[in-house]
Write a structure and sequence with these properties.
Number of strands: 14
Largest sheet: 8 strands, mixed
Strand content: 25-35%
Order of helices and strands: HHEHHHEEEHEEHEEEHEHEHEEE
Structural class: alpha+beta
Low-confidence stretches: 1-41
Length: 365
């Protein structure tokens, strides 16, 4: 790959990263106040989780690089920064949270693969880490197996470094489902769609959707990751007109890069994207269930070593349209107790776990 091509590849692929959740009476009463039980597969209760795994960099050096030598220096520094955040160790902490709560469906964002290869001879193929596989392996070791049902490719860029080898980073969004639900025939999946948005900053942004039959009742599950700045609004419109254009009930799990605050100094340009989804009939689970709780999910410092949480925005959302009832919703991975033994936050994003009940058409009104 020529130096000019390397520059073009990173210049386009990283643009989206500029900017950057006693008696039976008393027993029942207590139960109603407590979070939903660890297993959410009884009756028609479903548990959804969204978690950005965080590759380990905000890519600011690469964004600023202009010349071939600057790109090489930036790629070297970014590679070192990513390794310093110890992604595989962080995946263990996130796996602990998933194993404890046992969500039925987990939407994972920035499920990165980092590879190295021969200098100036792409593609690099030697895997340094694969966050999706590390997470699945850790969950299996804990006796909670998940199956991958959708992987949507995102950024995939490679550049030479000053370390004598090329570095290649691929970001993916993935949807995983508890394996026991599939094996016990509680869940049937169909009509998988993985599509790119027409309006995309890097030609790799899009959504995954899948139709779910849950104990005889159907809904559509959609996962997406909107871009920053001007692309989020047309992407939200496209999503409403395509994946969400169905008579089925819909659950939308989204790293939206948009908040419900039109005065937000960073994400205010994406507030119309939030409105578009809301005006399409979607209910924001966290804001509805916890109207006085900020529920911040973004963002910790780039190196994840900040002692005090720096989260100040809620951009990771679970939303629904149709006959669902909210049972519980919580932010996870945002407490100092969640950090790794070396003091790293598990991700720059917190996760969100929502438990919903899918009512039948007869009791939907």
């Amino acid at each position: 790959m020529s130096k000019a091509a390397t520059r073009r590849t990173f210049g386009a692929a990283i643009r989206q990263w500029r900017l950057l959740e006693v008696t039976a009476f008393f027993a029942l009463a207590l139960l109603s106040l407590a979070p939903a039980p660890a297993s959410a597969d009884d009756d028609h209760r479903l548990r959804f989780m969204i978690q950005n795994l965080y590759a380990g960099s905000f890519f600011q050096e690469l964004t600023a690089a202009r010349t071939p030598s600057e790109i090489i220096a930036a790629a070297t520094l970014t590679y070192q920064h990513i390794l310093a955040t110890r992604p595989a160790e962080r995946a263990v902490v996130i796996a602990d949270e998933i194993a404890k709560l046992r969500p039925d469906f987990v939407s994972l964002h920035q499920a990165a693969i980092l590879r190295t290869g021969k200098l100036n001879a792409p593609p690099a193929t030697t895997v340094t880490f694969d966050l999706l596989q590390s997470l699945l392996a850790e969950l299996a070791a804990k006796g909670v197996r998940y199956e991958t049902v959708a992987v949507r490719p995102g950024l995939d860029a490679e550049a030479p470094t000053a370390l004598g080898f090329n570095v290649r980073l691929a970001l993916r969004d993935a949807l995983i489902v508890r394996a026991d639900l599939l094996e016990e025939d509680h869940v049937k999946l169909s009509n998988l769609q993985i599509r790119q948005y027409i309006a995309a900053s890097t030609d790799t942004e899009g959504y995954s959707s899948i139709d779910v039959t849950w104990r005889g009742r159907q809904f559509r599950l959609v996962t997406t990751h909107f871009a920053l700045l001007s692309f989020a609004v047309p992407q939200a419109l496209e999503l409403v007109q395509t994946a969400a254009n169905t008579t089925l009930p819909v659950v939308l799990v989204c790293d939206c890069n948009a908040t419900d605050n039109p005065a937000d100094p960073i994400f205010f340009q994406n507030y119309p994207a939030y409105l578009l989804v809301r005006n399409a009939g979607f209910v924001d689970v966290f804001r509805t269930a916890r109207p006085n709780d900020p529920g911040f999910t973004c963002c910790q410092d780039e190196n994840l070593l900040n002692v005090t949480s720096t989260m100040s925005r809620r951009i990771d959302l679970v939303q629904f349209r149709g006959p669902f009832t909210i049972e519980d919703v919580q932010v996870v991975g945002a407490s100092p107790a969640d950090r790794t033994r070396l003091g790293l936050w598990p991700s720059d994003h917190a996760g969100v776990v929502a438990t919903l009940t899918l009512r039948s058409g007869d009791d939907a009104d």
